Amino acid sequence: MPGHGDSGYAVDHYQLDLTYQPRSNLLDGVAEVRLHTLTETSALRFDLHELRVTKVSVTGATLGKYTRKPTRLTVALKKPAPAGSELVVRIEYGGNPRPVRSATLGEAGWEELTDGVIVASQPHGSPSWFPCNDQARDKARYDVNLTVPADYTVAFSGETREVRRRGSRRTWTFQQRHPMAPYLASVQIGKYREQSLDGPGAAIRILRPEGLPADAFAASFGRQREMLTCFEDAFGPYPFDSYTCVITDDPLEIPLESQALSTFGRNHCSADWDAVRLIAHELSHQWFGNAVTASSWRDIWLHEGFACFSEWVWSEHSGGPGIAEHAARQHERLSTLPQDLRLSDPGAADMFDDRVYKRGALTLAALRDLIGAEDFGRLLHRWVAQHRGGVVCTEDFISLAQEISGRSLRDFFDTWLHQVTLPAWR
């Protein structure tokens, strides 16, 4: 994001020790950021939105001073650290977290619910709750301790390692051992009951409020085990250790996906296709967006186009309309909309425009038609296996598609990705 991140270093690990009071929306935290410098640097810049900083220390270099602006913390070193230096920066901070506002992208980050918290950081909200190098390309591993009142349950984008009760509080300990971009780190806090979906493969954990209609739950969230198996067949093994699905008691306009964790409103508990497709959509992001992450937001179609295409994969698998039928319907609809969006770089104002989602999915459906289902399946499996845990760009996908298909696809991708006019469907 413009104005976010520091290209002079890369983070290896975040250790976050947090305490949160829901009634007052008060967060106190200590962040230990282990990093290595990529260039010689005399200052380290962290993104942190309006939370007060009370103390900073540095191991591996000598701290000069630190300065605070509303959205940035700058840690100056007395002597420049050479490229390759390994440092640990410890930051004590706290305050009342609130979403980060962008003129073009709206609000993202830490947000209070009626009784709890939802953290939706894509694409610029991570600094609302912890100091970070807020760049999608800077993936790191995480260990998190979060203490809350004992009647609240916590979910994080990683594995629950331990829950300890001390008096009226519980401390939840989490770990994400797979590399994770800052915007994909999320916390959800609320009064939930836990349910597991039985079956082979990765554990699926659901945190849900009371009173969800049983039939609607079974037809939507209850089918996530089948969805996961379907997507493993189509894309390769599930890329993380487990999957957590949070259903808030509040209605949500759109669901939210983060690494190994997705969040929905109780309004998404429905057998209607518009609810079911979103559950499939968010699950598929674990492959496309979270395990394999676009290095730049201009390539957002590598997330959203793939996730929309995954909805069609699930529809076909589960006995609904097939991929070709969905593609034909969406092509007809898109042909009536303005032809002014370039899929390969839609711009900040349009990066979450529905045309990015649907035209991205159409691009994949057209590619499948062109190179055949067998090569297309090999392409998606290789795409995930080759880039899992890393970052990618559109050119990477084009190169792999050409390698696997054994043909030049430049004209095809130019038409679908770089030209604003919607190509013909079949």
TrEMBL record:
It is an enzyme of class 3 (hydrolase). Residues 12-184 form the Aminopeptidase N-like N-terminal domain. One of its GO terms (biological process) is peptide catabolic process. Keywords: Aminopeptidase, Hydrolase, Metal-binding, Metalloprotease, Protease, Zinc. Its EC number is 3.4.11.2. It catalyses: Release of an N-terminal amino acid, Xaa-|-Yaa- from a peptide, amide or arylamide. Xaa is preferably Ala, but may be most amino acids including Pro (slow action). When a terminal hydrophobic residue is followed by a prolyl residue, the two may be released as an intact Xaa-Pro dipeptide. This is Aminopeptidase N. Belongs to the peptidase M1 family. Residues 223-416 form the Peptidase M1 membrane alanine aminopeptidase domain. It comes from Ruania alkalisoli. Its cofactor is Zn(2+). It comes from the Bacteria.
